[in-house]
Amino acid sequence: MMDIHTTNALRLLQVADEFRASLAGEFSSVHGISVNEFLLMLHLKQATAHRLSRVDLAKRMHVSASTITRMVAPMEKIGLVGRDVDARDARLVFVVATPAGQEKLSDALATFAKRAGYLFADRWEEDELGQLSQMLHRMTARKADMLA
User: Fold this and answer.
1) 147, part of any domain
2) Higher model confidence: residue 107 or residue 138?
């Protein structure tokens, strides 16, 4: 028998996997992006000056810098992100969302909100949603790079 901590952590993983899977198909077919590309652009939107270095993106997304490089290359080719060189140090390059990327993110955020509504709509009362939100916030409050 598992303890309550293990059970809850496994349930969080299961819900996250199921929600990601429900997003993946719609993001791909409707918006032409992956869930990870959506998250990358969301991190850019939330960042100061709406730009981040590849290393900072990697830290926020919990992946390696080389993974970010592989993610950004096709996004750059289709015009969703671009490069912004630091004015004082040309060695420092930032990833920045283009206007087309910002528009794509805005459209994808509407899809995300719709899917989030489906996730919670028929299972929770408003006060329960508020409590859940507070509890999830406590779990992420120490992170400086929060998405919400």
Assistant:
1) no
2) 107
The Cα 148–Cα 132 span in angstroms is 14
- Tens digit of each residue's pLDDT (9 = 90 or more) over 63-86: 999 999 999 999 999 999 999 988
Range of the domain at 23: 4-140
* Euclidean distance between CA atoms 53 and 42, whole angstroms: 14
Which of 93, 8, 26 lies closest to 57, judged by CA?
93
| Cα dihedral sign, 111-117-120-121 | negative
What is the predicted pLDDT for the residue at 49?
86
Query: How many folded domains does the chain comprise?
Result: 1
The CATH number for 135's domain is: 1.10.10.10
C-alpha–C-alpha distance, residues 55 and 69, integer Å? 10
